[in-house]
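Hi there,

I know you've been waiting on this one. I reran it after we fixed the sequence typo, so this is the corrected version. Both the input and the resulting structure follow.
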Amino acid sequence: MHERTVEQAHVSIDGSRFVLSPSQDVDALCEQLEAAVAGAGLVVRFTTMEGRQVRALITPRSRVLITDESVMYESDDAVLSLGASGNWDLL
């Protein structure tokens, strides 16, 4: 069995917590959240680890927390991961 540490991003919006998809651009999501609270509010879209498409109405009263967590990934199988550069990596 192979073990490796993988970084996972989480977003919590008004108490609801979501694990973000590895393909989700966290910096772009932060920019969308900042734009939403700068005005009257906006719908912000993101993808979860399970592939769910989430649309959240973010207003200046919304409480949003984004965290990164190192998690252990255990597998007997190698998997392909799409890197930030758009290249596939064998894990």
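Quick highlight: The longest strand covers residues 2-13.

Best,
R. S.
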